[in-house]
Each structure stands twice: as C-alpha cells, then as structure tokens.
Automatic annotation (TrEMBL):
Keyword RNA-binding: no
PROSITE patterns attached to this UniProt entry: PYR_CT
Record-given protein name: Hydroxymethylglutaryl-CoA lyase
Keyword entries, A-Z: Lyase, Metal-binding
C-alpha cells in the first residue's frame, strides 16, 4: 500500500522566485513565506545564499531572513559553498541544503565546477555546518535527463547521490530539473538507490512538471515508499541555469492528489490556493496549476 503520511517540502520562495524575471520586493517574499507556513506546510525553503551575480533574484537573502526573524531560523536555505555557509551562520540559521549535479555539464553551468570538484566544494561546507549543529539536505539535479547530455545513466545518479550523502547530508532530494521523468524511470531509480543501501527514508523526490508527468511520477514514488515530496505553491519555478526547466509540481496539485488518496499531509489546500492566487497577482500572471485554476477563480 501507500505510505499513510508524507512531508511536503515547499520550495516556492526559493525554486519559484529564483526564476522570475522581475525582482520581487523582499516584503512580498516574507509574506509569501509566512502565508505558506500558516497554511500548514511543515518545511518552507526560504531562499539561497548563492553568489548574487549568479541569481540576482535572491540577492536579498540576508534581508529576507532578517525580516522573518526567529520564525525563519529553522527554514532551510540553499548554500553552495563555505562563503554561503558563513552568510547563513551569521544569521543563526539551522538548516541548509547543498545542491549537486549528476552530470558534468550541469556542474559546470550551475556551479562553475567539474563533477568531481563539486564534492570538494561541498565537503568542507557540510563538515562545518554539521559541526555547528545544522541539518544538511542535499539535492542532486538532472537525475532523469540533462538538456545538454541527454539521457543520464542511473548508476551516475546513484554515484552522485551517495557521494553527497556520504559527506554528511541527512536527506537526498532527487531532482528532475527539466521535468523529463516518467513513472517507470522513477521506480527504477528508487530501486537502484535501495540496491546501493540508500532506503526511501533518506530520499525525497523533486519533480518539475514540464511534460505534465509530475503527479504520475509522484504516484510511482509513493508506491515505491517515498514519503517526502518537494513542491512549489502555484507551480512556480525552474532553474535559470537549465534551459527548458519549467515550474515545479504545484503544491496544490500534490495536496489534491494526496487528500484523494487518503495520505496525510497536514496542509490547508484553500490557504495554499489563496496564497498562490495572491502571489500570481504580485507576479502579474496566472498560475499554471490546474487546481489553482479550478479552485482559485475568485
Ligand atoms: P564561482 O564564480 O566559481 O565562485 O561561483 P568562487 O568560489 O570562484 O568565488 C568568486 C567570488 O564570489 C568570491 O568573491 C567569493 O567570495 C564570491 P571575490 O573574492 O572575488 O570578491 N562568492 C560568494 N558570494 C556570496 N555568496 C556566495 C559566494 N560564493 C562565492 N555563496 C558559485 C561558484 C557556486 C558561487 C556559483 O556558481 C553560484 O552561486 N551558483 C549558484 C547557482 C544557483 O543558485 N542555481 C539555482 C539553484 S540549483 C536548482 O535550482 C536545482 C534544484 O531546484 C533541484 C532541481 O530542480 O534539480 C535545487
Ligand atoms: Mg528545482
């Protein structure tokens, strides 16, 4: 059967807003985060401490976290290196996420590192974070396909993922950065991690909905025993360094499906829809989420 409960890991403020052309004012971002927390989302990834020239949309990361104050301390933030970690430590943050690549090309495009060099960058970052008592999540991108390299061998994804976990990360989020995964591929990847000694308790799935497969992929992952799913309110998102990356699986679409399946999630659907409609108004365009369209028409 399916798991009785899952954790939804909300990435809208980070994965969503990193990809917006317009710069969203910091007070709007803070309100977005607060509304998502109030809607019952147990984890809300707030922003990234990356180089501000690489992602100008999130250059206000320190201001945002200062604005969120005490309530923001346990919210995860993306950190690629020791410089990013220093910035997070200065603010007393407790939870970071590193983000590696399963492919050589995307490591270069997204991190300015070779495949091997990325681990040398993350190693001391994770060691220092753990010594400071932080929790560390690791993402691995391009798990199902890469816009430059095409098909990505499953063994290569398992190698990248286990190397990230071995650095000291508590959870590995398997990213379908460009949304090309299909349900059978998801099943095969989860099985390959199991063969490598990485159980579903340490895995999360991060689907983008480019080909409209994110919910089917989620169902396949649920059947395989995965209990943490990344999603983005209103289906915002994409990676500025991955051509053809579109929005994440919309949180509303995920919540709708889980509720129908009787899988507990603890999230207030109406509150998330209301938040997405509000955010879409701020961004000046409608949400791509079908559930937002169905329920959000005021
Ligand atoms: P680099 O140019 O190689 O950096 O970029 P460097 O280490 O050579 O340092 C150069 C300068 O940058 C130095 O300053 C550093 O201090 C500064 P200088 O000494 O010249 O004055 N610097 C920083 N400043 C502020 N914050 C920092 C930082 N690091 C260095 N953290 C780097 C390497 C990793 C920094 C760069 O490539 C970068 O910032 N990349 C981030 C790209 C990104 O954020 N992409 C989107 C997130 S990933 C994603 O969306 C996928 C995901 O959703 C999952 C999925 O869908 O698959 C997670
Ligand atoms: Mg993503």
């Amino acid at each position: 059967g399916l798991p009785s409960a899952v954790t939804i890991y909300e990435v809208g403020p980070r994965d969503g807003l990193q990809n917006e052309q317009a710069i969203v004012p910091v007070e709007v971002k803070a309100e977005f985060v607060r509304r998502l927390v109030a809607a019952g989302l147990p984890v809300v990834e707030a922003t990234s401490f990356v180089h501000p020239r690489w992602v100008p949309q999130l250059a206000d990361a320190a201001e945002l976290m200062a604005d969120l104050g005490e309530a923001g301390r346990h919210l995860p933030v993306l950190v690629p290196n020791e410089r990013g970690l220093d910035r997070a430590l200065e603010l007393g943050l407790e939870h970071i996420a590193i983000f590696g690549s399963a492919t050589e090309t995307f490591a270069a495009k997204n991190l300015n590192r070779t495949f091997d060099e990325q681990f040398a960058m993350f190693g001391p970052t994770v060691a220092r974070a753990r010594a400071a008592g932080m929790d560390v999540r690791a993402y691995v991108s391009m798990c199902f396909g890469d816009p430059w390299e095409g098909a990505v061998p499953i063994e290569q994804v398992v190698t990248a993922g286990t190397r990230l976990l071995d650095l000291g990360a508590s959870q590995l989020s398997l990213g379908d950065t460009i949304g090309v995964a299909t349900a059978g591929h998801v099943k095969a990847l989860v099985a390959a991690f199991a063969d490598a000694g990485v159980g579903t308790d340490r895995l999360a799935m991060h689907f983008h909905d480019t080909y409209g497969q994110a919910l089917a992929n989620t169902f396949s992952a649920l059947q395989a025993g995965i209990t943490t799913f990344d999603a983005s309110a209103g289906g915002l998102g994409g990676c500025p360094y991955a051509r053809s990356a579109t929005g994440n699986l919309a949180t509303e679409d995920l919540v709708w499906m889980l509720t129908g399946l009787g899988v507990d999630h603890g999230v207030d659907l109406d509150a998330v829809v209301e938040t997405s409609v509000w955010m879409a108004g701020r961004l000046g365009r409608p949400s791509p989420s079908a559930v937002v369209r169905a329920l959000g028409a005021a």
